[in-house]
Amino acid sequence: MTIAVLCGGVGAARLLRGLTQVVKDEELVAIVNVGDDMTLHGLHISPDLDTITYTLANAVSTKRGWGLEGETWQAMEMVSRYGGEDWFGLGDRDLGTHLYRTQRLIQGAHLATVTGEIVRAWGINFAVLPVTNDHLRTHVMTATEGEITFQEYFVRLHHDVAVTAVRFEGSETCSPAPGVIEALEKAERIVIAPSNPVVSIDPVLAVPGIREILQERRASVVAVSPIVGGRALKGPADRLLRELGRESSVIGVARWYQDLIGSLIIDTIDHGLASEVAKLDIDPVVTESVMTTPEITVALARTVLG
Ligand code: FO1
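That is the input. Now the predicted structure with FO1 docked in place:
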């Protein structure tokens, strides 16, 4: 049984941890957003790929949800001393990942190749694929700051600015990374992880060919709602849905994915909305979906595969 999981950052990483306890490594393929990627200090940084890597390696900072546990920040303190760009926190150990990735890319290696080298170095043996090896960057249009990159929105401005539109630079010209289409076509189950639909999952769906496969295989596609009780568990998904004229609720999520998913996993707190979801020809699956314990996480993984 092959499971293909469309992933953003933190929420996806948690679900993957549950899935790795339920299926074999060779059955699991994570297809990861790269729209958050950026070049800073001359380094290629891939936050969602690294969040998944560090989380699955049990090395992620549990407090932050990104970066490594037990980080020091000496290098960034030097950058700050010089008045350099210090709004994006790069720990000393995390910098090593970006140094290696950047050097390998300069040598001509594809992002998927380098990602494989990095995840294997952390003892991860299932496939972690960037959705594309090509340039793909999420930009948000804001009323007050004009068009900014995702990380400027998410980190520098603490996503505390209203968004009027989202754009995926490179989506028309990029191609799926090797193995991505094949994984989506042969998977018994395609899972949309509980990541931000607007800025984490949509960039993945914007890569040519991917949305079409989910539309064709809708009956085999299940999404886990990242919205619980009208709120995002982490990050701006609720605000973004509202700012883009959608409901910040499981109904808003169901409509967002309507032509792509056959089932939507919603939290028990939203059980009252199950019939509304069903009206959209989406099978509502009500369960504990807030992954606060390993037991809930594994149970959710089983439900996703159920
Ligand atoms: N998120 C923050 O809120 N503040 C940061 O300073 C920050 C630094 C950072 C460095 C490396 C990395 O892989 C992720 C980092 N993140 C930071 C998270 C990043 O913004 C991700 O894109 C979010 O997790 C959204 O997916």
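The pocket of FO1 is lined by residues 8-10, 36, 45, 47-48, 50-51, 66-67, 88-90, 94, 151, 154-155 (CB under 6 Å).
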